[in-house]
Amino acid sequence: MDMQAIRDFFNSADAFAAHNGMTIVEVREGYARAEMELRPFHLNGARTVHGGALFTLADFAFAAASNSRGQLALSINSSISIFQGARAGKLIAEARELSHGPKLAGFAVEVRNEAGELLASFSGMVYRKSVALESLLPG
Amino acid sequence: MDMQAIRDFFNSADAFAAHNGMTIVEVREGYARAEMELRPFHLNGARTVHGGALFTLADFAFAAASNSRGQLALSINSSISIFQGARAGKLIAEARELSHGPKLAGFAVEVRNEAGELLASFSGMVYRKSVALESLLPG
Amino acid sequence: MDMQAIRDFFNSADAFAAHNGMTIVEVREGYARAEMELRPFHLNGARTVHGGALFTLADFAFAAASNSRGQLALSINSSISIFQGARAGKLIAEARELSHGPKLAGFAVEVRNEAGELLASFSGMVYRKSVALESLLPG
Amino acid sequence: MDMQAIRDFFNSADAFAAHNGMTIVEVREGYARAEMELRPFHLNGARTVHGGALFTLADFAFAAASNSRGQLALSINSSISIFQGARAGKLIAEARELSHGPKLAGFAVEVRNEAGELLASFSGMVYRKSVALESLLPG
Question: Are C99 and B106 inside 8 Å of each other by CB?
Answer without folding.
Answer: no
